[in-house]
Design brief:
mainly beta, Immunoglobulin-like, 6-stranded mixed beta barrel, 2 helices, 13 strands
């Protein structure tokens, strides 16, 4: 199978000792000291995002300009780190049209703009946890069992709660005003290891997982850290989960 043969990316998760105030601001330490990785089209057909990392980061500053309309792909910066009790995840999404109507828990936020993390605290990704958030702060949480690595036989448990999950979001633009040009939105999470049924990872330990973004404006854009190689898009491809290595 092609998805088994295509190499999986490795994301180094650095350990931090400082506390993080979870408020959606990604311009503060430690995020400002961690180099991002970039989400690319999930089908794996496009190896580049159309502009350099430096150019993309220029649009993600606190007062960065909107991305020009001639640039088709809207980049997403991903950063991760951890301490003795939590995994921290930060997304920064360049977005000319920030769109989201849902609020609260476990609404179908994946039908609009959303960022997602699928996390499997082991080397076997048949069981994993799905966490999502939209620009309004609505969230989705579920545990997933995929015995055959196939969406058709997976079991999604939306009664699962990620206890102690702290979330923050910020928007630079006018949320849900479709006729105005926006700049970016950012999401910041603190996820307790105990809520993922996992002890704190030791240095060198490896998890499996993937990180995604859906942007529904225009013709739609589906981005991932590890390419899912699926067209039409399908994020529930555990065999394509990348490797999260704890430093």
């Amino acid at each position: 199978m092609v998805e088994r043969e295509t190499p999986l990316p490795i994301l180094c998760c650095s350990r931090i000792t400082q506390s993080i105030r979870i408020d959606g601001d990604i311009h503060k330490p430690p995020w400002s000291e961690i180099a991002p990785v970039w989400l690319l089209p999930s089908d794996g057909r496009t190896p580049e995002m159309g502009l350099s990392s430096e150019q993309a980061l220029g649009h993600l500053t606190a007062d960065g300009p909107p991305l020009a309309g001639v640039v088709g792909f809207q980049p997403t910066a991903l950063r991760v780190c951890y301490d003795e009790t939590r995994l921290y995840v930060a997304f920064q999404c360049i977005d000319r049209d920030i769109f989201g109507s849902y609020t609260g828990r476990n609404e179908p936020i994946y039908t609009e703009d959303v960022v997602e993390a699928f996390l499997s605290p082991s080397s076997d990704p048949r069981r994993y946890f799905e966490l999502e958030m939209n620009p309004r702060g609505a969230w989705f949480e579920a545990s997933v069992l995929s015995p055959d690595f196939d969406r058709r036989t997976m079991v999604l448990d939306k009664s699962w709660v990620c206890e102690g999950w702290r979330r923050g979001v910020r928007v630079r633009g006018t949320l849900h005003h479709r006729d105005e040009i926006d700049c970016w939105w950012s999401v910041e999470w603190a996820i307790p290891f105990r809520s993922l049924d996992s002890p704190p990872p030791r240095p060198g330990e490896r998890w499996r997982g993937n990180f995604f973004r859906i942007d529904r404006a225009g013709g739609g854009q589906f981005s991932s850290w590890s390419a899912t190689l699926a067209d039409p898009p399908d994020f529930h491809r555990p065999l394509r989960f990348g490797i999260l290595e704890f430093a």
